Amino acid sequence: MIDYTDKLDLCVFEPLKLERPWTLATYRSIGGYSVWEQILKDKPPREQIIDKVKASGLRGRGGAGFPTGVKWSFMPRNSPVQKYLVCNSDESEPGTCHDRDILRYNPHAVIEGLAIAGYATNSTVAYNYIRGEFLGEPVPRFEAALAEAYAAGLLGKNVRDSGVDFDLHTFVGAGAYICGEETALLESLEGKPGKPRFKPPFPANFGVYGAPTTINNTLSYASVPTILRKGPEWFAKLGPANSGGTMIYSMSGHVARPRNIELPMGIPFADLLELNGGMKGGRKLKAVIPGGVSVPVVPGEIMMKTNMDYDSVKAAGSALGTGAAIVMDETTCMVRALERISRFYYAESCGQCTPCREGTGWMNRLLKRFIAGEGRREELALLLDVANRIEGHTICAFGDAAAWPVQSFLKHYRHEFEYMIDHGGRSLVTETLGARAA
Amino acid sequence: MADDLVNIEVDGVAIKAKKGEMLIRATDAAGAYVPRFCYHEKLSIAANCRMCLVEIEKAPKPMPACATPVAEGMKVFTKSPRAIGAQRATMEFLLINHPLDCPICDQGGECELQDLAVGFGRDASRYDERKRSVQDENLGPLIATDMTRCIQCTRCVRFTQEIAGIQELGMIGRGENVKVRTYIESTVNHELSGNVIDLCPVGALVSKPYRFSARAWEMSSTALISPHDPVGTNLFAHTLRGKLMRVVPRENEAINETWIADRDRFSYEGIYAADRLQQPMVRRGGEWVETDWESALLQAAEGLKARAADSGVLVSSCATLEELYLAQRLARGLGTNNVDHRLRQRDFRDQAADPVFPGLGMPVADVDALDALLVIGSHLRREAPILAHRLRKAGRRGAQVSFLNPAQFPYLFPVQSYRVAGAAEMVAELAAVLGAAASATGKAVPAHLAGIVGGAQVGEAHRAIAQSLLSGEKRAVWLGALAGRHARFADLRSLAAALAALTGAKLGRIAEGGNAAGAYLAGAIPHREPGAVAVQHPGLSARDMLGTALRAYLLVGGIEPSVDALDPESVRTLGKAELVVAITPFASPEMKAVAHVLLPMCSFAETSGTYVNCSGTWQSQQGAAAPVGAARPGWKILRVLGNLLNLPGFEYQSSEEVLAEVRARCASVVPAGYQGSHAVSAAGAAEPGTLVDVPMYQSDAVVRRAPSLQRTREGRAPAVAY
Q1: CA separation for the pair B651, B660 (Å, rounded)
Q2: Is B663 exposed, middle or buried (0-12, 13-18, 19+ CB in 10 A)?
Q3: What pLDDT score was predicted for residue A177?
Q4: Nearest residue on chain B to A376, judged by CA atoms?
Q5: What pLDDT, in 10s, does the model give residues A239-263?
Q6: Quick one: pLDDT at residue B1?
Q7: Torsion angle of the four alpha carbons A379, A384, A386, A387, in this order, in degrees rounded to the nearest 10
Q8: Measuring CA to CA, which of A78, A279, B361, B376 is 20 to 30 A from A294?
Q9: Out of A357, A389, A393, whose CB is closest to B178?
Q10: What is the CA radius of gyration of chain B?
Q11: What is the pLDDT of residues B103-123, one digit of tens each?
């Protein structure tokens, strides 16, 4: 493994090596708000900023990986109507926790990123939608930073006599996973039940309160100030083609040191694992879900040959998603793991579309019966069929996200399911590993 | 034109579709049926049932036809393996938690889920788990629930939100546990709420009064017209072996679209009330005895003949055109002009200037397109729910609607101005609006109104109302039923007419009952003969007839003076008469107390006849249900009475012959509005407490007897007088 010392914490986690990194003073000490102040002074053409973000290769870090600059360019920025900016801090994807740490340790990067995006898209009001479970630490930290920024005259009406208005408000959600879906988030922000809207129209035309809205993930916004400070070329070159910049990888599961770690895109998974202390207890790697539970599972041996960037993970049959790698060792019973994942989707479906509303419960019940020793062989095909019938048939991507784990677990670990069904609910893993099994 | 169209291909057939319209409209127009549950033409698009998924070339996933706009060159496959596969998948998901209790479900046989399951379901379920069950809700006396059957299409929720205007139903919960609920255990009270029964594609929301009483396939369906309000709502009556089992909407875009009011839907229960008159009855001494038609008619005819010139005929404004026409012919044959249907009107001073018939002066559908409107004295949602719905559409579109009413009545759309003025102040308020309009336009107020307008206190609100009536294309001033009952109706109308003339708005009137327009055209008024021909010596108005007793009365159409007439005491006047003959479907205690002959008459659902609505649209119907007991259609009873009175030209063989005669007499009628020059003085009697706001379910004899309607919140509301 090469030395990653000077590749750590290059962008959003940059101030983390300093004392009290969440304060305005610390953020300023690394050059924070210099980009925003320059914009207020020069008022460059908005296209110029969008072009720089496009050139940086920054892609949406919320999971879908849509190029951020391109998304900004969809905003009708010269239209006279009120335009909004929304930051999606409703981070609920199981395994993912980088937004939480950004809000805790570098909230000013989010604020500056939003301000810059507000200028670029000509939006004067922004909302940061933070999930309810973050009330403990991230929300107060963000609120404190917001107060600091307002007190320093960095936000508000006619900021520093520039003629630029930018107001930012915090909105705390009530903790539904589906509210992380951008249009459900907008509904929730408007005070309605969080149910995704069908698209088109897209938020850039019909967003919050029916007005043009740009919505990005917290990490995406937080990356923008550094990108503009150090230059889009610097950022783009950090990663391979199509995957510019750094990623905060949330490592969880059976690793020795589960944590968030910011590294350039394209780092080999093997190196990432080693940087996190390798497998817990030195056990053997079995499988990895590389981008939050909504993406397909990848067997360990394939993952060990895969780099962590959009194209490489896709080639391995999955998706980089949120960059949250859930690591599973040889003691993991894949039937039970899938049952747990399917229970999550069963509980979190908004209930709007028929296939997802009815299908997620069906899949979970089938898996529960497998574990209870009441499964039948032909029900494996049924389980897969149910998943296939949800996939691609719903308003939002939740249905796909519920189907993909089932499809991928059955693709790679079908023998475990068959064993359990044939042996009255006993797990293949437990039987082979005996006492060593979890 | 060509710019508005795009070329698309549906199942290999090239068609043209309107740019931007949703695919499902194009496929429907092309005759390529795409199954659907949540989609409804009149409601917003939800795209949540996923039943209408179709394959579109180059689209990576099947797309919902209801939410996909057509685009040039789009190639759609509604029956490809992929499309059918997606539709079958949805059907399987819909059925896994559906109880499949079709044999005991009221919707069986007319269930959209059942119908589509035949085409898209499988013969055996693959679902072996426990099924979901959902607790029922008590939505009130009209709508029964079986929420386990709900497929969460949200049509009912969207209806209450978008059409009714008050969200009485909503979805709670998440995932598999989403439920349609009232949130706070309340009943559903909106006057159009029964429509959710038709909207519900399954048996989750069904009609409570009708439940478990018949099957859709064993009933026959007959078109009817609602007699309860002047809209002329189109209905279908479903009968089983002659008995009316239920009423459902008949689509008519020009009038009621696909909606009907609860009053129209559930009033049918009233025709089978316990006090329905089964046989002709005569009073002998103090006793009521049943008799045969012949002797009852003879007694009535002889009695009327003996008191011919000193008799009066009162007809219900819910009667058919034929009944109204024959009733007035009978009165005039007896040698009197004492015939009237305006039982709740108080002020007849200016009746000579009445329009040819009371109405809106515009098609009902045009109400949607109004830009400005002033409503004077109308509890619109009670008086004409469909008009209120259409007005709400206009209001939501941006029309400036103002009200001048004796109290704050709820409305469910943005209102420009709402003036509350007691009965005594309404005239002065209206004069102030007229004054404001005169100053805004710089035109002079007509001389006959100069006095009152000159003394009016014009305020900001009056100016705002006047200004709203001056902006926009389509504008109107309406006088509602409350205005019609006002002690100074003639004054209100004179001012309203001047206001309309000054601002270029159309003057409209919402009369009582379903056939007031017909009554005017048929001549069931003391001052005009059929065809709007003025009589030289007008007879007595309803008010006068019921004020001091005449020697004989003929009541037609289930009139109950204690509630139908202006003054509850008027029933006493009848009691003083020598002879009261009532042609009525009901024998109420009140009638039995004052009448001498009771002749059982068919209700609105049992007779053929014609109604003229507030736009002047003539709509005819055939009887749907078999007459109860020995009841006969009103026109037949009147015809025989005419024969027995030896009146010439009473040899009608059918109601169509009567209708043809009315048509002929109205052939040369030119629809004309109010043309009066009635002078209004500042002083005038309008005592507080005399302006009665009749509750919606007290409007006529049939409605009053509909038990389910009476159990609703509105049904339990007492009448309020202002």
Answers
A1: 13
A2: middle
A3: 95
A4: B128
A5: 999 999 999 999 999 999 999 999 9
A6: 47
A7: 150
A8: A279
A9: A357
A10: 28
A11: 999 999 999 999 999 999 998
Residues of chain B that touch chain A, judged by Cβ-Cβ distance less than 8 Å: 45-51, 53, 60-62, 64, 67, 69, 86, 89-90, 92-94, 96-97, 126-127, 129-130, 151-152, 171, 173-178
**Cis peptide bond prior to A201, omega within 30° of 0:** yes
Nearest residue to B235 via CA among B205, B209, B258: B258
Contact B22, B69 (CB under 8 A): yes
Distance CA A118, CA A127 (A): 11
Q: Which helix (H) or strand (E) holds B664?
A: helix B655-666
What is the pLDDT at residue A435? 64
ipTM for the assembly: 0.93
Distances (CA, A) of B344 to A59, B97, B539, B562, B699: 73, 54, 17, 11, 11
Place of tokens 């969200």: B167
Name the residue among B48, B97, B173 with its Cβ closest to that of A353.
Answer: B48
Using beta carbons and an 8 Å cutoff, which residues of A are at the interface with B? 176, 178, 193, 198, 200, 346-355, 357-362, 365-366, 369, 382, 389, 392-395
CA torsion sign, B9 to B15 to B18 to B19?
positive
* d(C-alpha B5, C-alpha A334), whole Å: 54
Residue partners of B50: CB distance under 8 A and separation at least 6: A353, A354, A355, A393, A394, B64, B86, B90
* H/E segment holding residue B298: helix B293-306
pLDDT per residue as tens digits for the range B623-661? 999 999 999 999 999 999 999 999 999 999 999 999 999
Residue of chain A whose Cα is closest to the Cα of B54: A393
Which residues does chain A have within 8 Å of residue B86's beta carbon, measured at their own beta carbons? 393
E strands, A96-176, are 125-130, 167-172
Chain B environment of A362 (Cβ under 8 Å)? 93, 96, 127, 129
Q: Would you tell me how many other CB atoms lie within 10 Å of the CB of residue B692?
A: 19
Under 8 Å CB pairs connecting chains A and B tally to: 89
Note the pLDDT of residue B567.
83
Q: What is the DSSP letter of B421?
A: -
Q: pLDDT exceeding 70 applies to what percent of chain A?
A: 99
Tokens encoding B431? 């004069």
Task: Say whether A393 and B90 touch across the interface (CB within 8 A).
Answer: yes
Beta bridge partners of residue A126, listed in sequence order: A85, A168
DSSP assignment string, B520-583: HHHT-BTTEETTTEEPSS----HHHHHHS--SEEEEESS--HHHHSS-TTHHHHHHTSSEEEEE
Maximal CA-CA distance, chain A: 74
Show contacts of B292-296: CB within 8 Å, 24+ apart.
B293/B599, B293/B630, B293/B632, B296/B597, B296/B598, B296/B599
Check pLDDT > 90 for residue B175.
yes
Q: What is the mean pLDDT of chain B?
A: 95
For chain B, the distance separating the N- and C-terminal CA atoms, rounded to the nearest angstrom, is 55
Average pLDDT rounded to a whole number, residues B542-566:
93
Q: Which of A344, A393, A395 to mutate to test the interface with B (most CBs of B within 10 A)?
A: A393
What residue ranges of chain A have pLDDT lower than 70?
435-438
d(CA B278, CA B294): 15
Which of B48, B64, B177 lies nearest to residue A352, judging by beta carbons? Answer: B48
- A382: nearest CB among B48, B67, B126: B126
Question: Distance between CA A148 and CA A405 in Å, rounded?
Answer: 43
Residue B491: what are its φ and ψ, rounded to 5°?
-70, -45
Tallying the residues shown for chain B, one arrives at 722
Q: How confident is the model at residue B685 (pLDDT cuts 50, 70, 90)?
A: low
